[in-house]
């Protein structure tokens, strides 16, 4: 594979890595929202048990919805984030492997810096 094809594949991998990173960040936001929903459900449950809130049907349904919905969303987004991180690591490893195959050459700027002193 020539350097041009390698550079193109590396570029594609970099785009993929960036997209995967954005997906992980979205998952993290959903995970945070899920934790908040679980906390709200827990607070509502305690408030109902302590009779701070009238234990009517709406309050109970809302509490259950926050607890179960938050738990399900937390689990789904956590596993998606983990799978996406694995895919991102694989793409990064592939990119590193392709970069190592490129024949890199030292380019001098002609300023004389970095050249050994002549005796």
Which helices and strands appear, and what pairs or packs with what?
Blueprint: H1 3-49, H2 57-101
Helix pairs in contact: 1-2
How does this structure look, described?
There is one protein chain. Helix 1 packs antiparallel against helix 2. This protein has 119 residues and is mainly alpha-helical. The longest helix has 47 residues, at 3-49. It has two helices and no strands. The chain has one domain. It has helices spanning 3-49, 57-101. The mean pLDDT is 89.
Rough shape?
Answer: rod-shaped
Distance between the termini: 43 Å
Strand content: under 5%
Runs in which pLDDT lies below 50 for 5 or more consecutive residues are none
Give the overall average pLDDT.
89
Question: Can you give the helix content as a percent range?
Answer: over 70%
Helix-and-strand structural type: mainly alpha
| Radius of gyration, in angstroms, nearest whole number | 27 Å
Number of domains: 1
Number of strands: 0
Main features:
119 residues, mainly alpha, 0% strand
Short description:
This protein is mostly helical. It has two helices and no strands.
